[in-house]
Input
Amino acid sequence: MSRSRSICLLISLLDVTALTQAQKIEFISVISKAVSRSVDLPAEVQPFLSVSLHARVPGYVERVAVDRGSNVKRGDVLVELSAPEMASRIAEAEAKIQAIESDRLQAEAQLAATRSTYERTQKAAETPGAIAGNELVQMQQQIAAGQALIQSRRQSSQAAEADLRALKEMQSYLRIVAPFDGVITDRLVHPGALVGPGADSPLLVLQQISTLRIVVAVPEEDSGTIAQSAKVTFHVPAFPERTYLGTIARSSHALDPKTRTMAVELDVANSDGSLSPGMYPTVNWPVRRSRPALLVPISSVVTTTERTFVIRNREGHAEWIDVKKGQIEGAVVEVMGELQAGDKIVIRATDEIRDGSPL
Output
């Protein structure tokens, strides 16, 4: 009797223990939520426009009107060159045009005289035997030759005028002007220097810095959700207390094969001039997923030497679902795997809850 009572007591204790363990297993639903985060990415400040100014014609530097740091407006004269031989070439071209025009006027006068003679001869030829027939033919040929000569003179005049315009245009290149508003960031020439189109070094470097480009190297994994016209903040070491704002303006749409990054440009207004080309800011780059993330409690994810999984309640039995962990937000973690929003999983999961065991 005592032995039977002991067995019954042991069975009761086991039942209570199993019930207690079952009561400890709590479940929670997998939730779906749009996740956004930001990462710090290195970048480089570049001028919005930049040009190295060269001489387009050979000449000597007569005057440099600007220096490094000068603010200039579009159309301002920056450098003046002198080329005396160009003035003589222009004078020669003008004299050539005058000579050609003189020849043309003379040819037109001769043609007018020939036509007048032809008209009188033609009238006289109305009297039989007064004029030989071949005289009219010769005059007609003289008129045709005169017309051809005048046309040739006109074409020569047009060609000479075109040469003169080209020379005058080249003469205008002796005055180097600013192609846009900006700042002279480098001066590499002084008065008296011989310059020309074949020179390797520029005369000046002009950059537009009222608006700047911030070039960000975005990693491949974050390049799929670049939001055009989105606002992005960044900081520069020179002013660590300030937060600057840029707008995503353009993307290269190609990855650098060496770094596996995509160059993305921000447009930044630099009205106060605190930013300078060559700075290396740190951009707080927004990372947005193209689809909502699945979030579970951190305690629901079990990591062993072989696998990482969560335990899903499948019709009252444990089902191990392999997952990959993503971004952690507080007490929850993003997971990727064969899960769906609303699935019931164990809140405090361990590998002691075996796959397929009753819950």
